[in-house]
Design a protein that fits this description.
This protein has about 80 residues and is an alpha+beta fold. It has a 3-stranded antiparallel β-sheet with strand order 1-2-3, with no helix packed on it. It starts with a strand and ends with a helix. A hairpin with a 4-residue loop joins β2 and β3. The chain has one domain. The radius of gyration is 15 Å and the shape is globular.
Length: about 80
């Protein structure tokens, strides 16, 4: 199993978050980001106890890979 850094928010004030990772064992993404703590915002969502909500800026979307890019990365890592 390996977790791979995909992208970091270049505008982050401390260069740590938000950050997107890819887990090649589970074929899923992990998003490190800001905890949503505003109760009124959380109350407007239906989030099961086994899930959580994180927040990230829309500028991060421009750094997300396409599905094709993720598949190419995975193929390259296996070779």
């Amino acid at each position: 199993m390996a977790i791979h850094l995909v992208c970091k928010d270049p505008a982050s004030p401390n260069n740590n978050s938000p950050t997107l990772y890819y887990d090649d064992e589970t074929d899923t993404f992990l998003l490190q980001s800001w905890i949503v703590q505003d109760a009124s915002r959380l109350d407007s969502l239906s989030v099961p106890d086994h899930e959580t909500v994180v927040e990230f800026p829309k500028r991060l979307f421009a750094l997300f890979p396409t599905a094709g890019e993720v598949l190419a990365l995975e193929r390259n890592r296996k070779n």
